[in-house]
TrEMBL record:
Primary subcellular site in the record, as a coarse category: membrane
Ranges annotated as spanning the membrane: 12-37, 82-105, 155-176, 182-206, 265-287, 307-329
Bilayer topology term: Multi-pass membrane protein
Family: Belongs to the ABC transporter superfamily.
Protein name: ABC transporter ATP-binding protein
Subcellular location: Cell membrane
ABC transporter domain segment(s): 362-600
Database matches in PANTHER family: ATP-BINDING CASSETTE SUB-FAMILY B MEMBER 10, MITOCHONDRIAL, ATP-DEPENDENT PERMEASE MDL1, MITOCHONDRIAL
Length: 607
């Protein structure tokens, strides 16, 4: 929790200090009030014991070891009543201000932590993010940060009020009446033992509860994303059963943790009331023996009233401390889960250097790669090739042969294990990150279209793009025709993931994003799979014409030979190795795998 608190800005730490000060003022003011109330009640009780016409009796009051003398009971009652109102107003105002400040800090702090978590996730590589499931990341952004927000509030307010009420209530009770304080000898150990047992029971339950939340999110996400498959195979009952199991598990753990907490609270409340009943019984039984005159009687009543108030202070302190422990345990578990992400060092560092992407020369020098250290085999094995600026490289091979992995290494989504990937003669790991992201466009087979408009999605690739640039990119991607049919054209609303666009429309919009970026290197990773052969051929032709003068380097990864038939060089991959390299006509003669693919797709006569 303290590690997360350090993430807050200096402004909020300053506000925190003010909140703590106001809370201490509140506690101090309210701790004095029981003494004032006790004496006021005692004086009123004493006046009922004084016969009419009795001369005024001077009254001496001791508050926090400071003695005050009044001419009579009326003056003492009036003066202490005024001080009671003053302390009550001070305590109430400071409590209100402290609550407002703590609420502001906890809300703003939660917002800042969420923002820092988001920014840190943005710096992590795909490999880093894969170590956490989407469900776990979602839980951290929602439930975990919400619990940290509650924890911050407890840290700034309840954590101070509870222990202060407990400690100073005990001290003031001892100063009020040492004889009655024997109650504390039983009360404090019993309440302390109750808190220890409660903490030991509840703490492990919170960890289980957070895991249950992850399971619920995971099942929800799986059911939503896989809705089509679930309905196609009539798996609704199976998914319902899996979700019900996760939900029931959470319910049982949550019920147990709250039951434990409520049992602790009820036991503390019961024990405190028994202590108060015992005190009143003792005072009531012995009052006639100790109170020999009205003034002495008023002191007995005052001490009893004050002492009972401090017993309640101690009880409130214990209850609030239990709330603190409850919330801080939950916040501690949540903060650890968030720090697990924040402490993850990015696998791929953000680089600021003079090495820029200038021409688009790509070189792979004996590159081998595996996604996980524990994997038995490499996904790529000793891959070597080069692509000159302005050339078109085609990559083809069976599923799982490593085609998309090459694209990810070109884009530095992952780093090589062995060998070197170079762009314009520089190791890709040393190239300025901003220059790399700006000059390499990677268009995926399944494009991620964000909610907004067609224009806003194009602006993601190039924030400076005007309407003319958007129209040009759309025409080259063969997307202008369908965009122009929309009533609002480029202002047409797009829902999340582009669900209101067809597969082909999304792919063409994604290609338009790649074009409008005006990159030095354009990677089309099976990104025309949803297009018909005529449209696909037109897109390739348009890209060649559009970037003829700029000499853009194009890498086309495909399952279909028609997508790469015109490439300047074609790589044939199998099991992560290059088993053939050359132009289409050359590979037909020299490479059996390529020829078999061509025969199966184009037919004998076309080949």
């Amino acid at each position: 929790m303290l590690k997360l608190y350090k993430l807050l800005s200096a402004k909020y730490k300053w506000y925190s200090a003010i909140t703590v000060f106001l809370t201490l003022v509140q506690v101090a003011a309210f701790l004095v009030i029981p003494i004032l109330i006790g004496n006021i009640v005692g004086f009123i009780a004493a006046k009922t014991q004084i016969p009419a016409g009795t001369p005024a009796i001077p009254v001496e009051v001791e508050i926090l070891k400071i003695k005050f003398t009044f001419a009579n009971l009326d003056e003492a009652t009036k003066s202490l009543s005024i001080w009671f109102v003053i302390f009550l107003v001070i305590g109430t105002i400071s409590s209100l201000l402290a609550s407002v400040a703590a609420s502001y800090i906890s809300n703003a702090g939660a917002r800042d932590i969420r923002q820092k978590l988001w920014e840190h996730l943005g710096r992590l590589s795909e490999k880093d993010i894969e170590t956490f499931s989407h469900a776990k990341i979602l839980t951290r952004f929602t439930i975990d940060i919400n619990r940290i927000q509650i924890g911050l509030m407890s840290f700034l307010r309840t954590m101070i009020i509870g222990p202060c009420n407990l400690i100073f209530g005990l001290v003031f009770g001892l100063l009020t009446d040492l004889n009655l304080s024997i109650v504390f000898g039983v009360m404090i150990p019993v309440l302390g033992l109750t808190m220890i047992i409660s903490g030991a029971v509840i703490a492990p339950l919170f960890k289980k509860e957070q895991k249950n939340y992850d399971d619920i999110n995971n099942e929800s996400q799986e059911s939503i994303l896989g809705a089509k498959v679930i309905k196609s195979y009539n798996l609704e009952h199976l998914q319902n059963t899996k979700f019900e199991k996760a939900n029931l598990s959470w319910k049982q753990v949550s019920k147990k943790s709250w039951s434990s907490f409520n049992s602790t609270f009820n036991f503390i409340n019961l024990f405190a009331n028994l202590a108060v009943a015992f005190i009143l019984f003792v005072v009531g039984k012995n009052a006639h023996l100790t109170a020999k005159d009205p003034i002495t009687f008023s002191k007995v009543i005052a001490n009893a009233t004050t002492f009972v108030n401090y017993v309640m202070f101690i009880t409130i302190g214990v209850v609030m401390s239990s709330f603190v422990i409850f919330n801080m345990f939950r916040a501690r578990v949540s903060s650890k889960r968030i720090m697990d992400i924040m402490n993850t060092t990015p696998d791929i560092a953000h680089v600021v250097s003079d090495n820029k992407v200038t021409d688009g020369l790509i070189e792979f020098d004996h590159v081998s790669f595996r996604y996980y250290d524990h994997s038995e085999k490499n996904v790529l094995e000793d891959v070597t090739f080069s692509v000159k600026p302005g050339e078109v490289l085609g990559i083809i091979g069976p599923t799982g042969s490593g085609k998309s992995t090459i694209a990810k290494l070109m884009n530095l989504d992952f780093q090589t294990i062995y060998g070197t990937v170079k762009i314009d003669g520089n190791d890709i790991k040393t190239i300025d990150t901003y220059s790399l992201r700006k000059n390499v466009s990677h268009v995926y087979q399944t494009p991620l279209i964000l909610s907004g408009t067609i224009a806003s999605n194009l602006n993601l690739a190039n924030p400076d793009a005007d309407l003319g640039m958007m129209e040009n990119a759309a025409k080259n991607a063969c997307a202008f025709e369908y965009i122009n049919r929309f009533e609002k054209k480029f202002d047409h609303e797009v829902v999340q993931k582009g669900a209101n666009l067809s597969g082909g429309q999304k792919q063409r919009l994604a290609i338009a994003q790649g074009i409008i970026k005006r990159p030095k290197i354009l990677i089309l990773d099976d990104s025309t799979s949803a297009l018909d052969a005529k449209t696909e051929a037109q897109v390739r032709k348009n890209i060649r014409e559009e970037f003829k003068k700029e000499k853009i380097t194009t890498v086309i990864i495909a399952q279909k030979i028609s997508s790469i038939i015109d490439a300047d060089n074609i790589l044939v991959l199998e099991h992560g190795k290059i088993i053939g390299q050359g132009k289409h006509e050359e590979l037909l003669k020299t490479n059996n795998v390529y020829r078999e693919i061509a025969l199966s797709q184009l037919g004998g006569e076309d080949v």
